[in-house]
Design a protein that fits this description.
alpha+beta, 21-stranded mixed β-sheet, 23 strands, elongated
C-alpha cells in the first residue's frame, strides 16, 4: 500500500492591497472616458455647429458648450450673416437637439437682435446673402438647415426710416424654418421713435413664407381685435395696407397729441385702404376724423377724406379730397409719395367762403357745446333788436405735410382771408 497523499493547500489569495490598485485603475479609465465625453466631445460638437452654420452663410461664435442628454447647449453665442453688416444677433444660450452627433432643431433664449440702417439697404443685403447661399449650397448643406425657435428676445432697429428713427420690440418670440422659407415673429411691446416723439406700445405679429408676408399691428394692446394696421403681400407680389381705427383717444393708440401738432388729447377715427398691384399701379382711399382737436387753443372737429391713384414709382395724385375743420369746408389737392420705408403726404387745401356770423356761431358751439349755440342765438337776436349784426365772409387756405418716416415733423399751415366786421341794420 502506498502512503496516503498529503492534502492540497488552497491557492493563496492576492494581498488585499491589490484591490485598491485595481479600483484605481478602473476609476482612472472612467475619468478618461468622462474627460473624453465632456472634454473632447463638446469641442467636436462646437466645431460641427460652427461648420453647419458656415454652410448656411452664417458666422457663429460660441463661448463654451454644455452637454445634456440628447442635446447640447451653446453658451454666449454671436450670430452674423455673411455680407449683411446691418444685422447682428447675440444670445445667452442656444439649445441644439442632437440627431446622432449632428445638430438638429434649436431653441434660442435671451436673444438680442440689432438692425441698423434703412429697410431698403437691409433688403438688398439680405437678397444678396440669399443669392450667394443659393449658388454655394449643396444638397448636404440644404439638408443641414434646421428649424429655430426663440423666446424672451429683444429687437432694436436704429435708423429704420431716417437718421433718428428707432424701432424696439420686447418680449420677442417666434420661429423660422429655413427648409420651408417660413418664419413667424411676435412682440407684445413694440415702440417706434420718430424724431423727438415715441409711439406705442403696440402688439406686433409678423408672418412670412417663400411667397407671402403679413404684418399685424394692434394699436391698443388692451383691446383684442380693436384698432389695427394690417399689411399683406400676396403670392403675386401685390400689396395692401389697411388701417381701421374706431373712435378712440389718441393716447389709447400710443400717439402723443403733441407729436401730431395737437395741444391736447383728442379722439380719432380712421379708415385707410391702400392697394398696390404687381405692376405698381396703386390706389389710396382714406378717411380720418378728429373730435375736439385743439388748434391754437380752440377745440374743433375736423375730418379729411382722400382718394388718390397713380403709380408707386412716380407718386399718386389726389383725385378727390375734402377737408372739414369746424365751419370751414375745403377742397384738397396734392400728392402721395410711397417709399420702401413709409409714405409722404403733401396736400394743399382751400376753403369756400363762409359768413362770419356762421363762423362765430359754430366756433362757439364747438368750444362751449350746447351752451355756446344758445349764447350765439341770444347774441344774434340781441344784435338784430338793436340793429347791429356781424357782416362779411371768411375763407382760408393752407398746406398739410405728413411723413410717416418722421411723424414729429408733420405740419399744418393756415392762411385766412376775411372781411368780417359789424354792420348797422
Amino acid at each position: 500500500m502506498g502512503l496516503p497523499s498529503a492534502p492540497m493547500k488552497p491557492a493563496p489569495r492576492p494581498p488585499r492591497r491589490v484591490w485598491p490598485i485595481l479600483l484605481s485603475v478602473v476609476g482612472f479609465l472612467a475619468v478618461v472616458g468622462i474627460v473624453g465625453v465632456f472634454g473632447v466631445l463638446p469641442v467636436v460638437l462646437k466645431q460641427q455647429c460652427i461648420a453647419a452654420a458656415a454652410s448656411q452663410g452664417v458666422t457663429l461664435t460660441v463661448d463654451h458648450v454644455a452637454i445634456g442628454i440628447g442635446d447640447v447647449r451653446l453658451m454666449n453665442v454671436g450670430i452674423a450673416l455673411d455680407g449683411v453688416p446691418q444685422l447682428k444677433v447675440t444670445a445667452d444660450s442656444v439649445q441644439v437637439t442632437l440627431v446622432g452627433l449632428s445638430p438638429g432643431p434649436s431653441a434660442v433664449s435671451g436673444m438680442a437682435m440689432m438692425l441698423d440702417g434703412p429697410l431698403e439697404d437691409l433688403q438688398k443685403a439680405l437678397a444678396a446673402w440669399g443669392a450667394a447661399r443659393a449658388r454655394t449650397s449643396t444638397a448636404a448643406s440644404a439638408a443641414s438647415a434646421q428649424p429655430v425657435t426663440w423666446a424672451l428676445g429683444h429687437l432694436t432697429w436704429t435708423r429704420a426710416f431716417g437718421q433718428t428713427a428707432k424701432i424696439e420690440l420686447s418680449n420677442l418670440e417666434g420661429e423660422a424654418d429655413p427648409t420651408k422659407g417660413s418664419s413667424r415673429m411676435s412682440s407684445d411691446h413694440a415702440t417706434v421713435t420718430a424724431g423727438a416723439a415715441t409711439f406705442g406700445p403696440w402688439r406686433v405679429a409678423v408672418e412670412r413664407d417663400a411667397q407671402t408676408a403679413r404684418v399685424d399691428v394692434e394699436l391698443d394692446p388692451v383691446v383684442q381685435g380693436g384698432p389695427s394696421v394690417v399689411f399683406v403681400r400676396d403670392s403675386s407680389n401685390a400689396t395692401s395696407l389697411k388701417v381701421s381705427v374706431p373712435t378712440s383717444p389718441l393716447s389709447r393708440l400710443g400717439v402723443p397729441a403733441k407729436s401730431v401738432g395737437l395741444a391736447a388729447d383728442s379722439s380719432v377715427d380712421a379708415n385707410v385702404d391702400f392697394e398696390e398691384a404687381r405692376t405698381g399701379a396703386a390706389t389710396l382711399k382714406g378717411t380720418v376724423g378728429l373730435t375736439r382737436a385743439v388748434f391754437s387753443g380752440v377745440p374743433i372737429d375736423a375730418s379729411l377724406v382722400l382718394s388718390a391713384t397713380g403709380d408707386v414709382a412716380k407718386g399718386l395724385d389726389v383725385k378727390q379730397g375734402t377737408l372739414t375743420a369746424g365751419p370751414l369746408h375745403a377742397t384738397v389737392t396734392g400728392t402721395v409719395k410711397v417709399f420702401d420705408d413709409g409714405l409722404r403726404l403733401a396736400l394743399a387745401w382751400r376753403s369756400t367762403p363762409v359768413s362770419c356770423a356762421q363762423i362765430g356761431k359754430e366756433m362757439a358751439t364747438q368750444a362751449l357745446g350746447q351752451l355756446g349755440g344758445q349764447l350765439g342765438s341770444i347774441v344774434g337776436d340781441l344784435g338784430g333788436a338793436i340793429g347791429v349784426h356781424v357782416a362779411g365772409e371768411a375763407a382760408a387756405s393752407g398746406l398739410i405735410t405728413l411723413d410717416s418716416r418722421d411723424v414729429s415733423a408733420a405740419s399744418f399751415t393756415l392762411t385766412t382771408n376775411d372781411t368780417c366786421g359789424l354792420a348797422l341794420f
